[in-house]
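Hey L., structure's done. Input below.
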Amino acid sequence: MQSGAREILALVAGGVDYGEADRVVHLLTSDGALSAFAHGAKKSKRRFSGCLEPFTTIRAQLTESRRARGAMPTLAQAQAERVRLELRGSLEAIALGSYALELSRAVSPEGQDATAQFTLTEALLDHLEAAPATVALRRAFELKTLVELGYAPDLGACAVCGRDLERAWLDLVQGGVLCPLHRGQAREVGPKTLAWARAVLEAEGILPDGYDEEWAETAAQRLAIPVGAMWAEVLDRPLKSVALLDSVLGNPGTTSA
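Output:
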């Protein structure tokens, strides 16, 4: 390793070509999102060997600029740890994987401990290699990301007054389920939908075990509006990948059950 270099494990989230041979590579790491300048990335097979494609986990060697403090680091070389070729064969998987990477980078500023989010994103990408992209998988990833950000919803009692609920309205911006007195403009959600959401939050894996796939999709769709409202509150800009994801997976969620 070169003097002044550091080695990191990173997920390739995309990049932008710079001139005829160079590329700025966008990465997600356990220390947050960062971008690195890869000199000759489009020509050098020895240093990069085709491992700068999105969804690839790489072991990267970065060097910092000695001339300009705070400048973009240089990606000196990289080695693929996991390529995930199977994921790239499905438009739905590409759309969901791209969304997961963009969302994770958006909520993981550089220099912030993002180990849990990095692990969660890898788990979703690994899942997409072996199983189809679904709305349930998207929603599970979103809910778990909210937990990592410190926005774990209260799905038991009213998030405002703590009252036990026979019927529940969900507003994640307000902290979770709400009673009739505090429901405001929230949408009512049924016990089966809430049970699935609780199971997601308690699951060790990306998805809970023991749920019928068709019902999981229904529950996930019915959580679309409150989850979407929460992202509008948390994120400072819309994500570019959402339009494609919604077009290929759908994103309804209008009724209670």
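The CA atoms of residues 18 and 24 lie 7 Å apart. The two ends are 57 Å apart (CA to CA).

-- N.
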